[in-house]
Amino acid sequence: MHIERTNKLFEIHIEELSSWGKRPHKHNFFEIVYVEKGSGYQCINNHEFEYHKGNIFLLPPLDCHSFKIEEESLFYFIRFTDHYFLKNDGLTSYKDWFDKIAYILANYNKVPGDIVPTERERKFIIDNIKSIYQEYLSADSYSDSIIAGSIASILNVLARSIEKRYVDQANEIDNRFGEILRYINTNIFNSENLRVPKLAEKFGISKSYFSEYFKKQAGISLADYIIKSKLKIVETKALHTDLSLKEIAYQLNFTDSSHLARSFKKVYGMTVKQFKSTSGQVCCV
Q: Between the N and C ends of the chain, which has fewer C-beta atoms within 10 Å?
């Protein structure tokens, strides 16, 4: 299947459509879709989600998507490429931005569909999208900085929305558990903060009981949860960066690349290389 590629750092465009004439496709950009008007269904990796005016969707890289349009629709498509997050201009910490993206994608599968929880946040994102579009068209000496700030704002709101939803779901089980998951995911690059004594002290749970408590709430052990959370980020970094397995292992505090490779194969039943070659093969029709 053809995958779109671009050397541009960023692009945005508007399309008004009464039918989706394009073939279903995969892309190697991160994409945000805002529905200015219309209704129908969005298909992502063979799963359909109803859409209406005002909906905002995040499309991770290599996901396959198409639209079934029932009412004429106006879409804003914002695509920001791997190049955008991996460039180094000496002004912005793009590595931090990419780690934010990795965090979003690691948890996005838990909250499919529209992910904006409040009308205030929805209006904020829509206003920023429209501002980005105007700056993209004017393209003066200030535009890049304004666009960068707007994208950062959108990503932070989306990350917070995704986090809040799965934290709230966990808090329905126990009012501390969601905060524990939030803490683990935001400290996933810092192994010292994820040790049982540290977690037990922070959340007021006995050290001798914490592991049992966590497994009771999560259904898996703390160690397995941490490994699986790390491996979701490994997926993103393996697919969308040029980092070696050794470099990824170092960032995520695996003992070495062999430890990472063994852990990945144990959970996924395949090597990282096999995962990269087979990722995203299921597509919408």
A: C
